[in-house]
Amino acid sequence: MDKEHRMLEARLLQAKGLTQKEIAETIGKSERTVRYYLKQMPRPRTNPVRGSKVDPFKTMIDQVLEKNPSYNSELLFERLLKIGYTSKISVMKDYVALVRKQLALQAVMRFETEPARQAQVDWKEFGKQIVDGVETKLYAIVMVLGIREKSLCDSRREWIKQPCLPAMPSLLNTLAAFPTKSSTTI
To answer: Per DSSP, what are the bridge partners of residue 144?
Structure first.
């Protein structure tokens, strides 16, 4: 039984109402040791901090991930092996995941434009329909102005061969009709 367990047992016996002399006889230690055990504050055992085999390669990994955060870990592992890395891939992947998480948390500068000077365009396949006896995919294009007051949507059958391209001119002409200032007043 190690020291921490004896200290815990001494505290439990004290909580049951045993005297220090009785506790000493029960755990097989002197009264002075029992007194010491009962005075000590319980604290968690600390593990020694050891280095990792990936430590010498961290600067290289950081540089690669700074340039391309989604760099393939398998390829990175092969590069490290060529320069002397001797540990397993899982150790390296754990460090890569930590670095990627930190890179994702870095602040991003927002890009803002004046109202009605920017639009977001998205298109999506949203189902199938039988056209001329043939099942064809349906596409929609959605354009949202930066002022968030208007959302334009267009869907056409002629997009079967060139999805979304025919709708762009009509949506852009519609956007040109919007005022450059937001009509919302505060």
So the answer is: 120, 151
- What is the distance between the alpha carbons of residues 7 and 25, in angstroms, rounded to a whole number? 14
pTM: 0.38
pLDDT digits (tens, 9 = 90+) for 78-110: 999 999 999 999 999 999 999 998 888 776 666
Q: What is the pLDDT of residues 37-48, one digit of tens each?
A: 888 876 777 788
Query: Please, what's the largest Cα pairwise distance for the chain?
Result: 99
Q: Is the four-CA dihedral 63, 69, 71, 73 of positive or negative sign?
A: positive
Identity of the amino acid at 154: D
Question: Which residues are paired to 138 by β-bridges?
Answer: 127
Residue 183: closest CA among 131, 133, 147:
147
Contacts of 103 (CB under 8 A, 6+ apart): 65, 66, 69
Pairing of strands 134-145, 119-131: antiparallel
Q: Is-contact 116 145, C-beta < 8 A?
A: yes
Closest CA to 143 of 162, 115, 177, 171: 171
Distance between CA 64 and CA 9 in Å, rounded? Answer: 53
Q: Return the closest-CA partner of residue 154 out of 80, 144, 5, 134.
A: 144
Report the number of secondary-structure helices (H) and strands (E) in the chain: 7, 3
